[in-house]
Amino acid sequence: MINMMQEKTDCMVSCRLETSEAKEVPMKDSSTPKPRSRRDVIHLITNDTKSPALKDRDSLIALATGVDCKSLTINYPPKVTLPVGPIYVKEGTILTLSCHVTGYPKPKVKWSKVMGSLPFKTFKRSLITTNRLKVLSIKKHDSGLYVCTGSNTLGSAVETIKIIVVSPPKFISTPPQQVNACDKLTLDCQATGDPPAVITWSKESGRLPTDRTQLINGRLAITGIKASDAGKYVCTAVSASVATSKSVSTVTVSDKRKLKFGRDSVTDYIVVERKLPAMAKLTVCLWTMTSKTDSVLISYAVPGNDNEIILINLPTKTLHVYIGGASWDSGIRVTDGHWHHICATWDNSAGQAVLYIDGVRRAQGSLEKGNVTKSGGSLIIGQEQDKVGGGFDISQSFVGELTEINIWNRVLGPKEISAMSKNREIAASGNVLTWSDVISGTKHGQVQIIDSCKQ
User: Fold this and answer.
1) Residues 6+ apart with CB under 8 A from 304
2) At 439, phi and psi to the nearest 5?
3) How far apart are the C-alpha atoms of 453 and 226, rounded to whole Å?
4) How sure is the predictor about 372, in pLDDT bands with cuts at 50, 70 and 90?
5) What's the CA gap between 228 and 231, in Å, rounded?
6) In a 10 Å sphere around its CB, with 0-12 CB exposed, 13-18 middle and 19+ buried, how is residue 428 labelled?
7) Is the dihedral of CA 20, 23, 26, 27 positive or negative?
8) Which of 67, 123, 368, 450 has its CA 20 to 30 A from that of 209?
9) Of 194, 411, 241, residue with least CA distance to 323
10) What is the pLDDT of residues 98-144, one digit of tens each?
11) Integer Cα distance of 367 and 421 in angstroms
12) Phi, psi (5° rounding) for residue 53?
């Protein structure tokens, strides 16, 4: 026989034992007196509403010459448990909510949304399985209060949880930055998001210089910029710890240091350690200030040819270009003691050479067609090589100042060259040789490196 009882009510189960030889009867309550004669009647009365023994079924068994059993089923109203909210979820991802419901008879579970419908009713993006709600590709407008209701014959229970859908932060703009050495770099990172994003900065392949760095309201400021500060800076915006966006700003640093050659000498020069590749096209650009007519700006020699690439002012006071041993007299003079921006381009498909002075195309000529410059040679600044790495002539040594020497393995266009010539503080960076490669070369003699940070 099964008795149905409601939770929180009194329960009584009776067991009558008749026997000529009384034996012990195991009971739930050890304090209950045990039968001693055939006429003993024992009543077990409980109103322990918290006892786990009454949650489902209780049995009272009397052991003697026979057994009598009674089962008790406890009915109780639903109880609903949801995770603690609010829960933040990234827009476009999947939201999964589990609702834990207890009760007897087994409650029915229903999901709903305060001030709106569940997504599946309008966009068919929700799945409900047993007590679990899953929202696919959640949208910003899916934010709100979600309700889990459990119901049975004894009543119903309701719990709500707040869901906040977070949109990934979006950046307003993060343009590339160009800064001069010694100056202050400022990078702004403005990101829109709901809730507002928390912004942090980092540097790819390196660390931020903590002793020179300030971060205020998403703005990164680095003072006393050095050549080593060049690189990619990453702004990371995080909303509610779930939605993350990143933006990268590439920073180039113009090294304002200059090389000063103060005398005629065969001992003053720079050996560039960076090796040049073979090239079918090239552009050489630099800034120079000199009044000496017979002087070499750069000299590149390879075994078998000590005139592989040369820019030289000859005694004729005009600038000559050498490529692969062939020479071309531009007829242009740049030895007036003032700063000039020089770019020489060459393309082996037609053998054409072009000379730009201060951003203006001033001359063009022909060199050997189809030639390819050789790799692995010796590049020296300030002396003319008559053999690889040496054979200097004091009459051809450079006297003056040089800066921003760069080499590309392509022909730069007029607009690129013009932009570089507008201001010698504007950074340029060759893809074959950079000014940093030159300035970090091996210095010989009394060549001075002038650090404009200290001027």
Assistant:
1) none
2) -65, -25
3) 10
4) very high
5) 8
6) buried
7) positive
8) 450
9) 411
10) 999 999 999 999 988 898 888 765 567 778 888 899 888 888 888 99
11) 25
12) -65, -20
